[in-house]
Design brief:
two-stranded antiparallel sheet; globular; binds iron/sulfur cluster; 32% helix; 6 helices
Length: 144
């Protein structure tokens, strides 16, 4: 039997397009190789060139860059690759790390205006979001 979690009763969330989750300092945006290949294709760039220009290694994984510790490199008054944004972005704020306690959820509400507002998400819908986040983030090549 699965353990009862606070979000099993459902949660409210509706994005208000404030952009905070794309512009918050110190962020990282991981993705699978397949997701990054889709973004490269969307930008019309060879994959290696995309990796060079748009990504960096954070804690051993490939992340989109956040130049000068600012917004995600793909943020331009909204997501410039919205149709192909990584699952990490698509599934926010329903991340396992955020859903692990009510305190973590409330903490996110301090920067995300959509938390506890608008649409009601059932346990099943939240679980679908949790499962949709990649379990296969692309590993960075070790430095030579
Ligand atoms: S911080 Fe929340 S409300 Fe703002 S853009 Fe991100 S998901 Fe939407
Ligand atoms: S890829 Fe798009 S949605 Fe994801 S952090 Fe960057 S700008 Fe935001």
């Amino acid at each position: 039997m699965s353990k009862k979690r606070f979000w099993h009763q459902g949660l409210k969330f509706q994005c208000h397009q404030c952009g905070n989750c794309c512009t918050f300092p110190g962020g990282f945006v991981y993705g699978s190789e397949k997701e990054f290949r889709k973004i490269a294709k969307h930008l019309g760039l060879p994959f290696e060139e995309f990796l060079e220009q748009y990504t960096e290694s954070i804690d051993g994984y490939v992340s989109l860059k956040s130049p000068d510790n600012g917004p995600c490199i793909l943020y331009d008054n909204g997501c410039s690759v919205y149709p192909v944004r990584p699952s990490q972005c698509r599934t926010f704020p329903f991340w396992s790390d955020i859903l692990k306690s009510p305190d973590r959820w409330d903490e996110q509400a301090e920067t995300c205006r959509g938390i506890d507002k608008g649409k009601f998400w059932s346990k099943k819908e939240i679980k679908t979001q949790l499962d949709a986040n990649t379990k296969n983030p692309m590993k960075a090549e070790p430095s030579p």
